Amino acid sequence: MGSMTELGYGWLTPTLSYLMAVLGSALGLRCMVRAVGSTGRAKRNWLITGASAIGSGIWTMHFVAMLGFTVTGTEIRYNVPLTLLSLLGAMLFVGLGAFAVGYGRHKYRSLLLGGLTTGLGVAAMHYIGMAALNLHGRLSYAPLAVVLSVVIAIAASTAALWAGLNISGPVAAAGASLVMGLAVSSMHYTGMDAVIVQVTPSTAPLPGATLMQFVFPLAVGLGSYLFLTSAFVALSPTAQERAANAGAEHLRHLPAVPR
After folding, report:
1. Residue 209, helix vs strand vs coil
2. Distances (CA, A) of 86 to 124, 164, 203, 218
3. The whole model's pTM is what?
4. How far apart (Å, rounded) are the C-alpha atoms in residues 152 and 243?
5. Spatial distance between the Cα atoms of 209 and 38, rounded to a whole number of angstroms
6. 99: which residues sit within 8 A by CB, 6+ positions away?
């Protein structure tokens, strides 16, 4: 069995990956708040944007963290279709969870269903992403650590969706995002702790792309998407702000009361 390291760049990759998880969570929660105060097409669009933000954030977190993952005795390549499937799966499952909460008639039942769906999506993203690894050898997993990682993913997702429905105010939202980022990172490193690598030395070329050839540019692109979308959402008024502006505009056009 080859020795592994997850801190090939020191604490740089865990820190950057955590920040990406926080950014995706913050944007997703902000979109959830907007969705709760919206109806019709606007509600649907906010839910889709929130799901894409959280899905992109957790995927980028996973693969930025993987920059520091090396195995002694073998190179690592990534299966491109499986890597893309892990991204699409994350967005799809998070979207299902967001829509379950956004359109559910029973608040707490919808919250539990949404948290379960989203959490399973986070876990599926992680393990599909791990299945995309090609190396000289094979991966296996410690069952208890895998179960714990899935439980963490479900709990974190449920907490995030609850926060999206109940937390208002920038300070509380920032705190919820920090906690959600920590939970997603914890799920990742718990899942990585479950990994057992058995290396089979070989000089045969490995199929797939290196992390820098494919995954890193895609992660940079998704990170840019998150930053730009965050700016758009921050500048977009909430339903309450639009109502307040409309009220102020209405009062401004009322005729003056004669004295």
Report:
1. strand
2. 7, 24, 29, 13
3. 0.81
4. 39
5. 43
6. 47, 51, 114
Residue positions counted in the chain = 259
DSSP 3-state of 238: coil
Residue carrying the six token digits 């307040």: 244
CA angle 61, 124, 198 (to 5 degrees): 85
Residue by residue, pLDDT tens for the chain (259 residues) are 556 666 666 678 888 888 888 888 888 888 877 887 788 888 888 888 888 888 888 888 888 888 888 888 888 999 989 999 998 988 898 888 888 888 877 878 888 898 899 888 889 989 999 999 999 998 899 999 999 999 998 988 888 778 767 766 677 777 778 888 888 888 888 998 889 889 998 888 899 888 788 777 887 888 888 878 877 776 666 555 555 444 444 445 556 555 5
Residues 39 and 34: their CA atoms lie apart, in Å, by: 10
Q: Return the domain boundaries, the chain.
A: 4-241
Beta strands in 42-171 (DSSP E): 70-71, 76-78, 133-135, 137-141
